[in-house]
Amino acid sequence: MSDRISLATWMANIQIKLLVWRAGRLVGSDAAGNRYFEEKKARPGMKARRWVLYKGEPEATKVPPEWHGWMHYNMAAPLPADSAFHKNWQLPHQPNPTGTTQAYRPPGHLFAGGKRDKATGDYEAWTPN
């Protein structure tokens, strides 16, 4: 079975490389190393397709806001790094950590020790009649 998976992955990579070589035009890349492409020639009456080749594991939340807007045709070109929309107080883009070791774990979560503070006196558990 592992031979099948590796062969399928290999074939998918070949197909992607052929698509990019034949039909794609590199538009740019982001700080994380993701590369963004657009169709060289749009189909009649349609917008040119846009896609991203992720660096590392594919995860949609790795796409920063300026590229997200471009991918969804909200802007003709991605925002440049010196754009007035980028503020010095903004934190760098982070992918969604849900399901990873960096995910938030509230007090009492089994992976965060499994103990939480005692409930205060204003809490009364619901019990059915």
Q: How many DSSP E strands?
A: 3
Compressed to H and E, one letter per element, the order equals HEEEH
> Uncertain spans, ≥5 residues at pLDDT below 50?
none
- Major β-sheet, in short? 3 strands, antiparallel
Structural class: alpha+beta
SS field, number of helical segments? 2
Total of domains: 1
Name the quaternary structure: single chain
Strand order of the largest sheet: 1-2-3
Q: Bin the strand percentage.
A: 5-15%
Instruction: State mean pLDDT (0 to 100 scale).
Output: 84
Distance between the termini: 54 Å
The helix content is: 10-25%
Q: In one word, what is the shape?
A: elongated
Rg computed from alpha carbons, rounded to a whole number of angstroms: 23 Å
Biased composition (Polar residues): 91-103
GO biological process, one term: response to oxidative stress
Keywords: Ubiquinone
Organism: Niveispirillum cyanobacteriorum
Would you give an account of this structure?
- By secondary structure, the chain is an alpha+beta fold.
- The protein has one domain.
- The protein has helices spanning 2-23, 65-71, and strands spanning 24-29, 35-39, 50-53.
- The longest helix is centred in the N-terminal third of the chain and has 22 residues, at 2-23.
- The chain starts with a helix and ends in a 58-residue tail after the last helix.
- InterPro entries: NDUFA12.
